[in-house]
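Fig. S4 source data, part A: sequence.
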Amino acid sequence: MSTIGTVSFYTLGCKLNYSETSAIGRQFEGAGYREVPFSEGADVVVINTCSVTEFADRKCRNVVRKALGVNEEAKIVVVGCYAQLKPTEIAEIDGVDLVLGAAEKFRILDYIDGIGGGTGKGLVQAGEVKEADTFISSFSFGDRTRSFLKVQDGCSYNCSFCTIPLARGASRSSTVAQIVQDAEAIAARGVKEIVLTGVNIGDFGNGTQVIEGKRPRKEALFVDLARALDRVAGINRFRISSIEPNLCTDEVIDFVAHSERFAPHFHMPLQSGNNKQLARMRRRYRRELYAERVAHIRQVMPHACIGVDLIVGFPGESEDDFLETYRFVQELDVTYFHVFTYSERANTPAAEMDGAVPLPERRRRNKMLHILSEKKRRAFYERHRGEVRPVLLEKGKEDGVLYGFTDNYIKVEFPAEESWVNHMVDLELDAEGSLLSSKNGLRISARLPVATHAH
């Protein structure tokens, strides 16, 4: 196929965004465009944005400037959460030609021919978020080893701090059959690991068809989807990106414990270990339920990795409240934290709440939890020294050294040639050497055991 132009992509934010960027990329490829690296400059540049923090908003502006610095004639298209929330603001950025909302981004090719590079104010096509009521299949191919597969979109939980319902609409899903078909397409490309992504994947099963203003009952639950995917040939490992604690049921946990291909790795958002804050956040559980989930995971999978999302500096969080959270997660048998410093988001109930925490204090609390997280991760790595665990090998920046993650999310370093990339190999974690730490995170050296098995 002859090309009609070049296109490049820049993705900000979560794994879900990466899956959707790839889906949009395949649309351009089907239309005759050739994808080139962002750094090379392209005729069309698509920026897929996030709006979880104010930093992400500023990052969008920086990416636009970088794109025009490489090719000042490029057509700049901005999509994603920031584009739905603040389309007019983005359209005012010098060089932006087109802004597409949540319901319009997958029709991007319908608009491309009607815009010109860098002339005048950007064209905005962003309707009401309620119009984003269909599910579009998406999966990524960022490397040879791993794919992000979207199984759910939007959220109907309306937590008081979150803009996702405003940016992506209500919770909706694909069907089990369609997602199995997507997984089979991924397997056909030789990818060994699939990461299941979405906004609230535990809420899987909400269809996209609306009848008399209501969606029908769920055609399946998340555990039903997991059981179906577990039978897809060619995929060595499935990993659950994140799941709400109230939806991470004992049935889901027990399924993962007995599955040979679902990784023993759970990432459950907690946000606060203080029930007063959880109520103000409009979370759908109390900390006691979270502790029960962790205890059950540890009972059936002592080796499992458990990650935690936390927000510090939420309105009304006193020092005593924070210390209650700190002590709660300190005592929990979890592996690591992702700590977010609370930032006010327009049009959210939390932005209007009293009791704002000073920014320096928010940052101090973040640092305290970050230090605790590193201690917990190191302890987890130390606990598993000497074990033999399956590792999916990936290429690193250094010749002769490969990297990878065990099933329970321990990062390893392994001396091997590039021909080992995308192989699942049983490796023995170093029982004696020092843990290795760099800007790319903590890792442990690994070696082939006496008998090794490549899958």
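Fig. S4 source data, part B ends here. The chain has four domains: 5-131, 133-263, 276-281+305-383, 388-447.
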